[in-house]
Design goal:
Oligomer: single chain
Structural class: mainly beta
Shape: globular
Number of helices: 0
Largest sheet: 5 strands, antiparallel
Strand content: over 45%
Strand order of the largest sheet: 1-18-19-20-21
Distance between the termini: 34 Å
Radius of gyration: 20 Å
C-alpha cells in the first residue's frame, strides 16, 4: 500500500491498478497480464453490486481494503463501502438516500475510523424538501458500526480532502482547515486568498503531513506543497504545470506549454518530468509530441499507466507506455464526448 493518496479515482495495490470504467463500474488492470477485468470477482454477481455502479469515487486503500463511494443509477442511492481485495467481499458501511447524499465525495480511513460526508434532516424538517437537510462530517468504525456525527459543514462545497492522524483536512471557499474530533474545534491553517493564490485546479494529493495541489498564481497554474501542521507552503517546481502524480518518493508532472498538434490547440508539454518530493533534480523521463497521456496516470516500475489518446482524436484507451522502450499498449477503449 502506498502512503501517498490522490483524489483522482486511481489507486494501485500489488499487481493491480483500480480505476472507474463508467458504465462498466470499477475496473482493475493486472500489470502482470495487461488484462482489464471488473473489480467485482463474485462469479454469481447479478450486476447490481456496488462495484458495478456507473459513478464512484475512491482515493485510498487501507489495510487491504479499497474504500469507495458508489452511486446507483437505478435507485440514486449513494453508498460508502469497501472492497476486501484478498477475498473480493464488498461491505456497505453507510447507505444514503438520494436526498441525503453528497455525490462526489470519497470516504477516507485513518486509524480505526472511516470518515465521510452526508446530509441530515433538520429537526422538524420536511423529509421531502432538500432545503431542510444540512451537510455533516461523520465517521464510523472502519469495519462498520454506529455512526458518529462530528461537525456541521458549511454546505456541499465544504470539502473533505483527506484525514491526517485522526484529524480531517477540510477546504471551504479559500481556506484549508483541520478538525480535531477530540475538542470539536476547526482551525484554519492556510488561506489561498491571503497568500495571493487563485482557484484550485485539478488533482490533489497527500503524503504524510503535506498536501500537494495545483493552484493559480496569478493566472498560470503551479504545483504547491502545503504542510497541514505548520501552514507553510512551497512551490514545488518553478514552471506552470497541468497535472501531476505522486508516489512515495517521486513526483511526476507535465508542464504547461501552448502548442498545436494535429490542428488542435493544446496546453501541455510533450515531456513528462520526474523530480524528488521537494522539487529537486527534475529530469525528462518520457517525451511524445502527439500523445495525450497525462490527464489521469500513474508511474510504476518505469511504466506509465492511464488514459492515452492521440491529440485531435475522439477516442482514448486505457494504456501502458514503457518509458524505456517507448512502446505503447492500448487496452480498454473509450469515446470522448
Amino acid at each position: 500500500e502506498l502512503r501517498a493518496m490522490h483524489m483522482d479515482n486511481l489507486v494501485e495495490y500489488g499487481n493491480y491498478i483500480y480505476y472507474p470504467g463508467g458504465v462498466d463500474g470499477m475496473l482493475r488492470f493486472d500489470r502482470r497480464t495487461n488484462q482489464i477485468s471488473s473489480a467485482c470477482t463474485d462469479p454469481e454477481c447479478t450486476g447490481n453490486c456496488l462495484l458495478k455502479a456507473p459513478i464512484m469515487y475512491f482515493s485510498q486503500i487501507a489495510n487491504g481494503r479499497l474504500y469507495f463511494a458508489s452511486w446507483a443509477a437505478h435507485t440514486h442511492e449513494y453508498t460508502y463501502a469497501y472492497l476486501d481485495i484478498q477475498t473480493g467481499k464488498v461491505v456497505a458501511l453507510r447507505e444514503c438516500e438520494d436526498i441525503e447524499s453528497t455525490v462526489g465525495t470519497a470516504p477516507f480511513v485513518d486509524g480505526d475510523f472511516c470518515y465521510y460526508k452526508r446530509k441530515i434532516l433538520k429537526p422538524d424538517g420536511d423529509p421531502k424538501n432538500p432545503d431542510n437537510y444540512l451537510t455533516y462530517l461523520c465517521r464510523m468504525p472502519a469495519d462498520g458500526g454506529d455512526e458518529e456525527v462530528l461537525l456541521e459543514l458549511y454546505g456541499d462545497s465544504d470539502m473533505l480532502l483527506f484525514v491526517y492522524q485522526g484529524q480531517p483536512v477540510l477546504f471551504y471557499d479559500t481556506q484549508f482547515s483541520l478538525f480535531d474530533p477530540a475538542t470539536k474545534t476547526r482551525t484554519v491553517f492556510f488561506d489561498l486568498e491571503e497568500e495571493g493564490f487563485g482557484f484550485l485546479r485539478g488533482d490533489m494529493a497527500m503524503l504524510d503531513s503535506k498536501l500537494y495541489f495545483l493552484v493559480q498564481k496569478p493566472v498560470d497554474v503551479y504545483l504547491v506543497s502545503l504542510d497541514v501542521l505548520t501552514g507553510e507552503y512551497t512551490t514545488v517546481v518553478d514552471v506552470p504545470v497541468i497535472n501531476f502524480r505522486i508516489t512515495d518518493d517521486k513526483i511526476y508532472y507535465c508542464p504547461a506549454e501552448s502548442r498545436t498538434v494535429a490542428n488542435t490547440n493544446v496546453n501541455c508539454s510533450a515531456d513528462l518530468f520526474c523530480c524528488n518530493l521537494d522539487g529537486s533534480d527534475p529530469q525528462v523521463i518520457y517525451s511524445n509530441p502527439s500523445l495525450d497521456y497525462t490527464e489521469t496516470f500513474t508511474v510504476i516500475d518505469n511504466k506509465i499507466y492511464g488514459w492515452v489518446g492521440e491529440f485531435g482524436s475522439s477516442v482514448r484507451h486505457w494504456g501502458i507506455i514503457d518509458i524505456e522502450t517507448k512502446e505503447v499498449i492500448h487496452g480498454q477503449k473509450e469515446e470522448i464526448s
